[in-house]
C-alpha cells in the first residue's frame, strides 16, 4: 500500500498541522475491495472551487457532503433499486424517514392521500398526526375493497395511493396490479411499503407501482442491529425525495448502509427459511385446540391465498393467530415462550412474538381494540431462523399455558384480584 503524499510537502509544519494532514492521507488501493467500503466522512474534497460548486448544485455528479450523497449509502440505494427492478433509489436514516420523505415529496397542504387502513403503526401516526396538522388529509380505505379505493381516489385533489404488500394485523395482501391500475386511472402514483415482503418475495415496481419503500431495518438487514430506509422508483420522483432529505436531514450513516448491504447476499436464503418455518407453524396452529384462527398467506383459509400465490415468491415470515382465551391467553402465550424475543420489530434472525393487546394497544379496552381491528387474543409473530422443530416445541408449551390461562376458571380467578 502506498500513500498519496505529494513530493512537495516537505516544508516544516507545526505538529497540529501535520497531524490533521497525516490523518487524512488516503490509501491508494489498486485492487477493488470485495465489500463496499464504509466511507465514514462528512465531506469530500474537490480539486477546485468550481468543481465543488458544480457538485453542490447538481451540475455534475460527485460527492461534496454526506447529507447530500455518500458512496456507501448510494451503493445501498442502487443495490436495492436493482433488486426491486427500479431505475434508481435513495437511502435514508430509517424506514420512517423514507416514508415521510416520500409522502411529503408528493403531497402538500390542502391535498389528500388515500391509504390502506391496515397500515404500519408509525405510518398511521405520521398520516393522522403530523401530516394532518400540516394540512395533508388522509382517507383510510380497506385496500382489498377495490370499489372503495376507486371511490376514495375520485375525490380531488388526491396525490397518491398508499398500500403495503403484506400488512398487519391479519397479514393482508394487497393486489398490486389491480391497485396500480386504479391509481393510474385517476392519474396518481401508487406507493407501496414492501417491508414485510422484501424484494425477494415481491417486486411491486414490476407489477405497476411507482415508488417502493423498504424499512432496511427489517428483512434487508435481517439481524436486528441497524436502522435504515430505502425508497426506489423513477429518477424524477427519487430526486424529489432526495431534495426533501437534503432539507430535513434524515441521513443514513455509512456504517448503517454497510450493515444493510451485508444482509442482501443472504436475503433469498433467509426469506425461504422464514417462509417455510412460518408456513409450517401456521398450518400447525390452525389445527390446535385453543386457536380460533391462524393468518398466513400460505393457508387455504387466507382470504388472499390465491393472490399471494401469484404475487409472492414465497409466503413470508409474518404470521398472526388468534387465541380463544382472549387477553389472558395471549399474555400467557408470550410469557411462556423461551426461544423468542419479547420485543417489537420484525424481520430478524430471532423469532419475535408480539401481543398487541398487552403491548402496543394495551391502553385500549375491548371496544377500542375492536375498533382497531385487533382481537384481545391476537398474536403476531415474525418467524426467525431457529430450527423449526425447536420453535414448534416452544409454541406447543406456550399454547398449553395459554389454554389454562384462558379458561373461564382462570379468568374468574384473575378477576377476583391478585394472588
Ligand atoms: C418497521 C417498519 C417501518 C418503519 O421502519 P423503521 O426502520 O423502524 O423506521 C415502516 N413500515 C413497515 C411496514 C415496517 O415494518
Summarize the structure.
By secondary structure, the chain is α/β, with parallel strands linked by helices.
Give short descriptive properties of this protein.
419 residues, alpha/beta, Aspartate Aminotransferase, domain 2, Aspartate Aminotransferase, domain 1, seven-stranded mixed sheet, four-stranded antiparallel sheet, 15 strands, 41% helix, 15% strand, globular, binds pyridoxal-5'-phosphate
Outline the biggest β-sheet. 7 strands, mixed
Strand residue percentage? 15-25%
Task: Kindly report the CATH topology of the largest domain.
Answer: Aspartate Aminotransferase, domain 2
Q: List the uncertain runs.
A: none
Task: Provide a descriptive summary of the structure in words.
With 419 residues, the chain is α/β, with parallel strands linked by helices. It has two domains: 62-265, 3-Layer(aba) Sandwich (Aspartate Aminotransferase, domain 2); 267-416, Alpha-Beta Complex (Aspartate Aminotransferase, domain 1). Helix content is 41%, strand content 15%. The chain has 16 helices and 15 strands. The chain has helices at 15-22, 49-56, 71-84, 95-106, 121-133, 146-154, 176-185, 198-201, 235-248, 254-263, 267-286, 305-311, 326-336, 366-371, 388-405, 408-415, and strands spanning 2-3, 27-28, 88-92, 112-116, 137-141, 158-164, 166-167, 172-173, 190-193, 211-215, 229-233, 291-295, 318-323, 352-354, 378-382. The strands form four sheets. A seven-stranded mixed beta sheet has the order 3-11-10-9-6-4-5, sandwiched between helices. α3 runs parallel beside α10, α4 (95-106) packs across α9 and α6 (146-154) packs parallel to α7. The termini are far apart. The model has no long low-confidence stretch (mean pLDDT 93). The protein binds pyridoxal-5'-phosphate (PLP). Pyridoxal-5'-phosphate (PLP) is lined by residues 94-96, 99, 120, 122-123, 164, 193, 195-196, 215, 217-218, 227, 229, 346.
